[in-house]
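Request: When convenient, would you put together a sequence paired with its structure tokens?
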Amino acid sequence: MRARWVVGLIWLFGQACTWAIELAPPQASQPLDRQSRYFIDPSAQLTIDQVEAQDQSLPWRVREKQANYNIDGKALWMQFDARRTDEARWYLELASSGLDRVQFFYRGPDGNWVQQEAGDTKPVSEWPLPGRFPTFELSPVTGQAVRYWVRAEHARVNFAAPISLLNQSALVASREREQFLLGAYFGLAALTMLVAAANGVVYRDRHFGAYALYVAALAAGQLAYLGVGAQHVWGHWLKWNEVATFVLPGVASATALWFTRMVTEPARFSGALDLAVWALIAGLLSAVALDTVLESRTSFALVMALTVLALAAVMALVALVWRQGEDPYIQLIAAGFLPVIIMAIFPVARGLNLIPGSALTRYGLSIGAAVEMPILFYALSLRGGRRREAQVRTAALSRNDALTGIAHARTMLHRLEGALARARSQKHTFALLVARIANFDAIVAEYGRETGDRALVVAASHLRHAISDVDLAARTGDHDFALLLEGPATSAGAVSCAQQVVASGLRPTDALPPGCTLKFHVAVATLPEKDLDAEASQRWLLGGVSAMPPDSRKAIKPMNF
């Protein structure tokens, strides 16, 4: 007798929890937590007519908030009553992509069943309301309660989709917001991938090439996981749509570990460590292939476990390089990986059925990837720039002085010949300045040759700052320099440039010892001068500088004005 009372109380409590939900303004959404009931059909064979006929005898339970259910080979039935009080259209949304099959039932005004179906078993274009999530429209009947039934099938991962009722305005606003944010994320991913691939090709930088593949794999995994691929990319490839949610995220994890190996180069520290990384990559890809064939909960759990190991290996490799202190940009690389590692915890935990579905399990990895992409791209740009700097300097040796980085004497003569030819044909003048560090020998005698070399580099820097981008600075002797101010140029402008050079040399700089300044002597001329060619013009001005006494108070000598 007592058992009957307990069963009766449970049944009454279940009935109370299925009282009609009032759908009326101003509310725009209504979660079904604790306002619906469920039972699991272990055979997955019951039809809607059978469930309705056996309603009173079925083991209904109240559906709790954040509940999740293992329904491998089974069917989950849910039931709720709702009453619309106005003409607004209302919808049922199961906020989870990748569900195998969801059916929605209610009786129409004529007493016949109205059935709607969505899930991976049908193309998204054939869903009642196409989108990322299964969504069904409620009965148009107003003023009276309507009973609704939901049947769901889902394998390998517990069913834990948040289920809500939304009116049309709330549903449209939610979808527009999601499309905007997802469009921004995938647009950023596409741009990053294309620019990284271009850098890899142009600069022959394998790290950028690997990064482009990593970004592409991560974006493809998110296309599948978020349901965007099924909605916009492979909507009619049903078999691929069923497996993509499990295949592509695993491939993305393996690609992330491969990219990290490329960046950190563990073979420098240990051949066994490098081999272990390769083994983990091969194991993860093999587990993904095995799961695609077996399609079982055990095989998918293996993929998730290896994904956790891959994430741990990524952080371990970055930490190893950081500890060695050999890479000045490893802190930036670690900062880039950190958001993805942290946010990946949520979908991985969801895949292992440790937590229910939520916004973080759905969008956490996308948020982390959006933060990661610009940081890693910037770090790789800095690393690549450092490597290319030596290449650029080597390539420039045919045109520039190895110590100072400015043009050497041959380049100056070549440019000067072209300037003379243009000036004579176009009847205009340009300016040439020859500058000498008059106290160079004294600097070397007092501070040594190393300081003398620094003085030459500082002098070249001063000369570069004194001219425009179209002009040319060159080192023409041990401590002699030339400035070509391509025309048209006036004598006043040439003298002003010479004054700037002299003044800059007298300013103290941290690159030289305290009290050490550069005393420039400068000869200035406007060219062409008579029939002098490039070499003769340069010798003429160099002779003018040589004629100036070392202790001369006059540092600028005009040659022909």
